[in-house]
């Protein structure tokens, strides 16, 4: 697992807010290490999940094709649909 990998911006922002809260509590004399630990654990978990989704999306992208749809109009196959859904889940956008 590569924990230095950049996570999607929306996840990085949420983790930064959590880390910022931990720092704010520290500067007020309230030592709440659970916030720092939680942010670190979340970063590791989310990084692993994003990496797994990216790997699966790449696999499905390689299997992507079109199939005959209604009235002979090409439609994406299931693999192409899954790859797009995974990218949307990770980054909030399609291919």
What is this structure, in a nutshell?
This protein is mostly helical.
What do these coordinates show?
Strands 1-2 form a two-stranded antiparallel sheet. The protein is mainly alpha-helical. It has helices at 9-27, 33-62, 78-91; strands at 66-68, 74-76. It starts with 8 loop residues before the first helix and ends with a helix. It contains three helices and two strands; from the N terminus they run ααββα. The protein has one domain (9-91). The model has no long low-confidence stretch (mean pLDDT 84). It is rod-shaped.
List the helices and strands and how they pair.
Layout: H1 9-27, H2 33-62, E1 66-68, E2 74-76, H3 78-91
Residues in helix, %:
55-70%
Task: Return the string of H and E elements.
Answer: HHEEH
Q: Please list the strands of the largest sheet in the order they lie side by side.
A: 1-2
Gyration radius from CA atoms, angstroms: 19 Å
Tell me about the biggest sheet? 2 strands, antiparallel
Contiguous low-pLDDT stretches (5 residues minimum) are none
Q: In the residues, how many domains can be counted?
A: 1
Strand content: 5-15%
By DSSP, the count of extended strands is 2
Distance between the termini: 24 Å
Q: What is the helix tally?
A: 3
In terms of structural class, how would the helical and strand content be classed?
mainly alpha
Q: Average the pLDDT over all residues and give the rounded result.
A: 84
Identify the overall geometry.
rod-shaped
């Amino acid at each position: 697992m590569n924990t230095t990998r950049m996570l999607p911006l929306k996840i990085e922002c949420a983790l930064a807010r959590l880390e910022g809260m931990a720092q704010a509590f520290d500067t007020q004399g309230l030592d709440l290490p659970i916030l720092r630990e939680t942010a670190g654990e979340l970063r590791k978990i989310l990084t692993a999940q994003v990496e797994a989704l990216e790997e699966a999306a790449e696999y499905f992208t390689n299997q992507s094709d079109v199939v005959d749809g209604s009235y002979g109009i090409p439609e994406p196959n299931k693999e192409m649909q899954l790859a797009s859904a995974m990218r949307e889940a990770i980054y909030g956008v399609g291919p």
